[in-house]
Structure formats: C-alpha cells, structure tokens
Amino acid sequence: MSELKIPNGDIDDWLSELKLYQKNTVLKILTSCSPEEAAEIWITATGHENTIPFGGSRDTKPFWDKFKAEFKKFICDDNSYAEEKKALMAESSVTKSILIGVISAAIGAAIGYTATLLAPAVAILLCTVGKIGKNAYCKDG
Amino acid sequence: MNIFTQLVLIVGRVNPDHVQMLGTGFIVNNDGYIVSTRHVVGAEDANLVVLAPHVANINAFQDLSDTTCRPVQVKIREMDPIRDLVILKADLTFNGKIPSIGSFDNDSVGDEIGIFGFPHCVEGRRALTFQKAEIGAKVLLESSGVKSKYAVINVQARPGQSGSMIFSPKNNTISGVLIGAWAPSGGAISLGGINPRELHQTTHCISAEYIKEML
Predict the structure, then answer these.
(1) Which of A129-138, B107-116, B124-133 shows the lowest per-residue confidence on average (mean pLDDT)?
(2) Are B135 and A30 in contact (CB under 8 A)?
(3) Taking a C-beta distance cutoff of 8 angstroms, is the pair B169, B163 a contact?
(4) Nearest chain B residue (CA) to A44
(5) Which residues of A touch B178 (CB under 8 A)?
(6) Per-residue pLDDT at A91
C-alpha cells in the first residue's frame, strides 16, 4: 500500500475547506494562541466559561488527549484506520476537503464524537503535519 | 401562538428504558432543521432525538402525568462550540410558516420578547412554557478571543430552558437562543444541587444571526 500523503498548505487553505462560520471563528482564536491550542479550544469549548448552562448532561470525557492520540494513530500508524486509508488511496485525487472529512468521520466514530465538531481541529492538525512533514510529526513524542 | 407548540421541541437521548430529556430546541426551516445549544446535545448524536409535539393548542392543559412520547431521531449537522450553538436535522418536514431568523440588532433595550421552552424538562417535567421578559441589556461576550452578541433578558431561567426560542413580537422574528445564566466561575458552591450564584433575575441569550451562518 502506498503512503498517505498530507499536502502542504497554509492555514487559510486548510480552513477554507470548512464552513465559513468555522473558518472565521478559528481564525479569530488563532490570533492569540498556537494552532494546537486553537484546535483544543475549539473542540473542548461549550460556550462562555462564566455562563451556567440550563440543560444537557456534563461531558466528562478526557476528550482532547483521546482525540490527539487517535489523530496521531491515523497519521502515523499504518495498521490503524486501514480501511479508511485504503479508501483514500483508491481516490484519484485526495483533496484537503476529502482528507478532513474522512479523518473527522473516522476518529469521530472511534471516540464517539460528531465529525462536524472535529473537522476544524483535524484541519488545523493536518496543516501542521503538512508543514513539518509526516516523519517529523510522527517522531515528535 | 399555537404555531409555537409545533416549532418548539424537547431534545433528548434515548436510553434503554426511557428518554432522558436534555433541553429545548426549535425548528427553523421547513426541511427539519432544529436549533439548540451544544451543551444540551453534548458531542455525539448517538440516540439523540427530539420529541414530537404533545399539544396543538397552547391553551390546552398539558397532562404532566402523561409520559408517552414520540421520539424523532436527529443528527448533528453543525456545531459551534465557541458560541454554544448546534444545528440538528430531523427526518421531518414542516408545512407551516416559520418566523424568520432575526438578530438582537433589531431589538432595543426595553423591548418585550417571548421565551418558548421547557423549564425543568431535565427533571422529567414536560410543559411547554411561554414567558415574557424585557431586554435589559445588549452585551458582547468574549470567549476564546471571539466576541459575540448577547441579550441579557430580565427573567430567571431554569434547567431545561437552554436552547429555548427567543421571539421578538415587534419584528415577528426569532431574535435569539437562550444559553444560560451569568455566574462567574470560581468559588461556586452547591446547595441541594443548586448553585446560588445562578439564582438571579437575568438570563443570557445569544443573537440568532449566528444561526444563519450555520444553515
């Protein structure tokens, strides 16, 4: 099986594959923190910190660490998510949009989170991988 | 007013022996798109449902002993965790006329708004409830560097009302979504499961304009 390639591109390119509300919000978050911090903020936020919610059940899953570990598995471990990677390889052209969609759905199904919540964080991390290269990303603890 | 009995729904999750009611949501278009809050639905759509309307007349006496319900499966379509909003999609069509989505830009401090929701539904009580309140302030709240428009409305909300529709009779539009009560974190205590800091006569609602961007 050939290797999954993550294209290089700046953050605007990757975020342009998202819905406009996601892109605009993430760009604002990025003005005050690193890409990885922005990804964490996005997927762990539940509104304003000083607002007491009136509904729902408390979400106590250690979500960020689990998400990040699964993302790393997808990118670095050839034996993980083999079916999804096989499907990606079968595509004649793997666009950024397809990568974001497939990885968000795969990780979402694995850890029980909706793909639409994960997509912006996946886009940000894919941008990082594309920039530093897969080998360097996977070598980094 | 009866139209709101069909538009405003309970959001819940199906468990093995019952439906856990989580909060309120409301239909925003004829194709079955429903708005609620991210904190109401959580982060996964497994077993997520809305309950089909249980009354057609808002003046009817709602039988609180009636625990029958008709769950309709929904999927999460869009989620904005910073603004605490979510768009759900149900396999249903709505044939009536739905108020258009507005914004608190078009409401003034002192204007009356209507709140349609299900207070105490998280405790098993299903009573579609209408409240009136005035807009006490229009504020920008910053969350993770992102500023958003809110209205502070002069009424106390209770668990189950998150995701309630804020309706502007002046503009005949949906102006906002009920989010929660201002209660600065830190030093919080709980008395019988209630945080006394949330027991004040104001509630925060986010402007509905952000819904438009998500549809």
Answers:
(1) A129-138
(2) no
(3) no
(4) B81
(5) 54
(6) 80
The whole-model pTM stands at 0.92
For chains A and B, CB pairs below 8 A equal 138
Q: Which of A31, A44, A116 sits opposite B78 (nearest CB)?
A: A116
Pairing of strands B173-182, A51-53: antiparallel
Taking contacts as CB-CB distances below 8 angstroms, the residues of chain B near A45 are 81-82, 84, 143-144
User: Which amino acid does the sequence have at B35?
Assistant: V
Inform me whether the pLDDT recorded for B76 exceeds 80. yes
Q: Given B43, B146, B163, which is nearest A55 (Cβ)?
A: B163
Contact A45 B143 (CB under 8 A): yes
* pLDDT at position B176: 98
Distance CA A39, CA A36 (A): 5
Phi, psi of A13 (to 5 degrees): -60, -45
Q: What whole-number distance in Å separates Cα of residue A56 and Cα of residue B42?
A: 7
B78 CB near a chain A CB, below 8 Å?
A: yes
State yes or no: pLDDT of A73 exceeds 80.
yes
Q: What are the residues whose beta carbons fall under 8 Å from the beta carbon of A129, sequence distance 6 or more?
A: A6, A75, A137
Q: Determine the average pLDDT of the residues in A67-80.
A: 93
ipTM of the complex: 0.90
Q: How far is A68 from chain B (nearest CA, A)?
A: 16
Q: Binning pLDDT at 50, 70 and 90, where does residue B187 land?
A: low
User: A55 and B24 in contact (C-beta within 8 Å)?
Assistant: yes
> Is the CB of B180 less than 8 angstroms away from the CB of A46?
no
Helices and strands, counts by H and E, chain A = 8, 1
- Tell me whether residues B22 and A56 touch, CB distance under 8 A: yes
CA atoms within 13 A on the CB side of B38: 24
Q: How far apart are CA B154 and CA B138, in angstroms?
A: 12
pLDDT of B186 strictly over 70 = no
DSSP string, A78-129: TTTTHHHHHHHHHSSS--HHHHHHHHHHHHHHHHT--HHHHHHHHHHHHHHH
Residue with tokens 């793909």: A115
pLDDT, residue A61, reads 54
